[in-house]
Amino acid sequence: MKFENAAFALSCGKLSQLPAAERMEFAFIGRSNVGKSTLINKLTGRKALARVSAVPGKTATINFYSIGAVYLVDLPGYGYAKTSKAEQDRLRQLIQGYLTADRDLRLAVQLIDMRHAPSAEDVAMTDMLIDAEIPFLIVFTKADKLNKTERTKRMAAFAAEIPCYADIHTIPFSSVTLEGRDALRNVIAEIAEE
After folding, report:
1. pLDDT tens-digit series, residues 13-61
2. Was domain 3-192 assigned CATH 3.40.50.300?
3. What per-residue string of b and e applies to 68-98 under the rule 16 or more CB within 10 Å gives b?
C-alpha cells in the first residue's frame, strides 16, 4: 500500500453526500484540535493533503482521501465548545450518522491527546465504538510533548480512565518525531490486504 499516493477525493457536509460504500474505509475520529488532519498528513507523507488549522473546529465536513481501493476518512472533531449548539448538534449527527451507516468501515482510529485525561466525549466515543462493535484502536497524539516520567504516569492513568483499556490496541504518536507512524501504517496495510 503506497500511502504517498493518497489524493483528496471529496468532502461531505451532509450524510446524503456520502459516496457509495464501494471501498474499504479507515476513519479518523477525535476531539477538535487533537491532530486528525496532521496524523493523516504524516501517515501519507504529504504536507498539505489534509487541511490543518491552529483553530479548533475547522474540519466541519467528512473528508475522503483515496489510496488505491481504500479511503482514509477525516471526520469532524467533536467537543468544541465555542461553536453554536446547532453546529455542535449537526457535527454530532454527521459523525454518528457516518459511524452507523452501512459502510465498509474496517477500522476507526480514535485520537486522544496523550497530555490529558480523556474527555467525557472521548469516553462516550470509546463506549459507542465498543457498543456498535466497530473495530478500532486508539492513537495517543502529541507524545513528544511529555517527558519520560510524565508519559509513564499518563499511560498508567489511561488504564483506569478508558473503558476496556486492556483490550484496546494503542499507539503513541508524535507528528514531530514520527513515533507511531510506521506502526499505524502497518495496521492499516495489513487490514487492507485481508
Report:
1. 899 999 999 999 999 999 988 999 899 999 999 888 887 755 555 568 8
2. yes
3. eebbbbbbbbbbbeebeeeebebbeebbeeb
How far apart are alpha carbons 91 and 62 in whole angstroms? 10
CA 56 to chain centre: 15
Residues 105-158 pLDDT 10s:
999 999 999 999 999 999 999 999 999 999 999 999 999 999 999 999 999 999
Residue 163: partners with Cβ closer than 8 Å, 6 or more residues away: 123, 126, 127, 130
Q: What phi and psi, each to the nearest 5 degrees, are found at residue 22?
A: -110, -5
Q: Are strands 70-74 and 24-30 parallel, antiparallel or unpaired?
A: parallel
Helices (H), the chain: 36-44, 85-100, 120-131, 148-161, 181-192
* Model confidence pLDDT, tens digit, residues 94-105: 999 999 999 999
Residue 182 grid cell: 510506521
Residue 80: per-residue pLDDT: 66
Contacts of 16 (CB under 8 A, 6+ apart): none
In 3D, which of 68, 66, 69, 91 has the Cα closest to residue 78?
91
Write down the pTM of the prediction: 0.92
- 181 touches 42 (CB < 8 A): yes
